[in-house]
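Note to self: the last two entries modelled the partners one at a time, which told us nothing about the interface. This time every component goes in together.
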Amino acid sequence: MSIQSIREFMPKNNLVYFLCLALLIFVVFPLSMDIFRLNLIGKYLTYAFVAIGLVLCWGYGGILSLGQGVFFGLGGYCMAMFLKLESSDPESTKIQSTPGIPDFMDWNQITELPWFWEPFYSFPFTLLAILLVPSIFAYIIGVAMFKRRVGGVYFAIITQAIASILTILIIGQQGYTGGVNGITDLRTLLGWNIRTDSAKYILYFVNGVLLFICLLVAQFIRKSKLGRLLLAMREREDRVRFSGYDVSNFKIFIFCVAAAFSAIGGAMFTLQVGFMSPSFVGIVPSIEMVIFCAVGGRLSIFGAVYGTLLVNWAKTTFSESFPELWLFAMGALFISVVMAFPSGLAGLYKSKVEPWLIQTYTNIKRYYLERNGTRPAESGETL
Amino acid sequence: MFSEYTSSELVSIFAMQGFAGLILFSVFVLMALGLAIIFGQMGVINMAHGEFMILGAYMTYLTSNIFSNYLPGFYGIYFFIAMIVAFLAAGSLGALMEFSIIRHLYKRPLDTLLATWGISLIMQQTFRSVFGAREVGVTIPDWMMGSVPLTEMVEIPINGIFVMCLTVVISVSVYFLMYKSRFGGQVRAVVQNRPMAGAVGINTEKVDRVTFGLGCGIAGVAGSAFTMIGSTGPTAGQLYIVDTFLVVVFGGASSLLGTIASAFTISQAQSTMEFFLSGSMAKVLTLLTVVIILMLRPQGLFSLKIRK
Amino acid sequence: MKFKFVFPTLKKISAYGRGLLSTLGIIACSFALNTANAADSVNSTGLAVTDDTVTVGILHSVTGTMAISETGSVQAEKLAIKQINEMGGVLGRKIKYIQEDGASDWPTFAEKAKKLLVRDKVAAVFGCWTSASRKAVLPVFEQYNGMLYYPTFYEGLEQSPNVIYTGQEATQQIIAGIDWVVEKKGAKTFYLLGSDYIWPRTSNKIARKHIEKLGLKVVGEQYYPLGHTQFNSVINKIKLRKPDVIYAIVVGGSNVAFYKQLKAAGIDLRKEKPLLLTISVTEDEILGIGGENIEGAYAAMKYFQSLDNPNNKAFVKAFKEEYGENIVIGDVTQAAYLGPWLWKAAVEKAGSFDIDKVREASPGIELTTAPEGYVKIHPNHHLWSKTRVGLAQRDGQYKVVYETEELMEPDPFPEGYQ
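The predicted structure of the combined assembly is written out below.
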């Protein structure tokens, strides 16, 4: 890879963004917070995976999915199934009428592990399933919809319906899924107790690293030809099509990527919080995830992370002190983001903060150069 | 499957199930008609539609309280007044919302979704603060709550008939308003070509506002009617939103006739399946079928053939 | 610790400084110990207990879909705490509470439970309503060793050392009710109906087993998604099967739709043909359903607002003084009211706020002042209680028509019913 291609992949200011975010997540948060708050941040960051996926498919591709919770949930459920099988070994479930199967199955008179649970005894299979199950599901939806040129509003409504179907299904088939309670009481991962404080620290950092991998993938897509095509498609789909591109394949691809990101988030959520329930699959969480992305700025992968952190932090703080006001604040946030700041935090940064930073930087530079007796650089020089 | 019933029972089953399907059909039409106007005609994804229905329901509750306290003699007819109040309240709030928020977003339909979702959150919390978190019971006049026995097995609920009549009245008036009146002509003109409509002297902004208000008002009436069959609580509106959107989209968003046809199809399918399957599975299967058909035929059952 | 005095050379000054600091630290600590000493004997694990206050947590949904149901529990718990404080508190300490909102969202419950236990160090938590929220917080309570007082009647199949279940578990509620309709009303056939989640399904399973054990027949079983509002199909099926009893465990907003449609379909519950027996409709739910729509239905639970005993009269009066004349009190509200009192009794028996000691003291705790009469904590952390059958009245109250002779033993893992 030449220097040139590296520069193209990661312009200087993007590098600064990456470093700032890394500093925040890996240094500032762990040092300034106790494990309780840090675990909360870790939980918020799992939603950021979804938000990054949404930046790609909504901000870049113009595909608004109101069913990202489905993929988050599928990823989370895959992980939860593995953990549940591990924690329901015959020894610890011997009071059940059928030892060795998850407790909720026993309550529902199921006497044998269903076939689709069997493969989840294997950890490698689980890891693969976390990525593949949601992606394949997204692929099927994508092929069915985009090949027929369904887009925009219709896509949003259909994904929403899918979220609602899956929720009813999970709740209805409680013998196989744990129903409305979800899959709870998860303890160990390959024998490692995930509920201790040290495990929480480790999981937080693993989560952070995975988030950065996703960010890098997203950055790569954004800077590649695909990213530019996606933007072109969002603006004038017909013209891209007339230029000879198969538009639907790009859409399907980006939708699958977003699904896989969400699934990783879901799996990390299960690990950090210790359970998975259908309440993440439904419509409300899916729409909330869209708002995380919108607050951060739908065109900025970094904005998505900050937006997620900000909204969730506000939610926690508000609901600790004024639970009644929280819905008002949230509603107002939705409206104001749409009306006043369509490009979110990232837009505010671009239009207000960045020019000021550049100005300050130039002033400082000029001051030093003048003091050293060199000619001042022309103002307006960029970083 | 049928062997355990006698033939006269079978006749009754089909009669009763057919009727249950018709009630469900009316309910769907009432839910969807307002949205068909707002979403189908104007392209606004109104996620607060359910909350407008609940607003109508709360207005009915208030009216019933006022009647039982001040005009007990007229309690039998309060429901009609309540529906008018519900229509006016929901309609004027809708028009206000259009004026303050929606009109800035016509070019960005996906953003209307987020903004109206925000509105729905605010409305829910307002209901909770004003009327309390508990559900309220709306007392229905006695004459509306009985049933007419046809045979020993088959009984027709009066509120079902009432909902059906209401649906017919509203559908017919919407039809005349949209397709026979001057206002309807203006609405369709604005929908099809906004600049040209403006150029021939139609006040497009006013038309938008009135159309939006009309859609919300119909939602209010629907909510008012639903106090007879459903619950009235701050978050009850969310229950309706997915079904409503599916009905509208399935019918082909821009066609009011399509909305009615799709409501008919979905309701009959659901009520038939409910009889043979468990309630949850029937719901899943119905939604799934609708989604699959939509994937195969994205334009819905009926679609306007217009050049894009 | 011993300190040798060393002349402070420059090199050693830092070590000296450190020594000084630690001495200061020790002094500070001993001061702290002095002040904490009184609290220490009753609180050896660092709970939020001072000389004159003790902090507990209240964890319910005040927003979201479950706020409808949980409001009553919050009110009851606050009332109980207020009354305890007026009587002088627990071990001479006034109870302060920190209220958190679960927002009808299970992960939020887990998050808030953790906050209450880890950051606020509360001595007990009164809260949760749905089974799902309890399942979500349970690992948190077990990991951080907290104590939860859970008020709702529920499906059983659980027994945690960190939870006291102040509501009835399924067998207590179900078996007495079914025995009653069979003996007193001669019921032979049953139609089971419920919302689609774990409590109704498990409860119906227990009911079915019991009905079949009695040699009677279940003629149908149906579940509808939570929030479902169209029950015409199932009502038709009921008409067709002509069961003696409709056994309904519908919850939430669906209740309203179900009972209104039942009435509209011409099934007059007052005629008891079929008779309707429910375990999910308390006075709270009737507010939404409307008394005129459910008049004539029977409910089997442990408490009704209309119970005629001095404890209950005092409780209802206090509750109305606090929250207004029109307030109603349902089974769960009363169970929530028991929570703080049971905790107080256990703490006083143990002479300490320590969770382990409270747990040890809990079995056998009796409450003779309970509005429902007399309750006692079983070693399995559930309550011995009587089960009553009430007949719904037009005014939204139940008339108690039957009461078990003996206290029903809680049996969360019923043999042969699973």
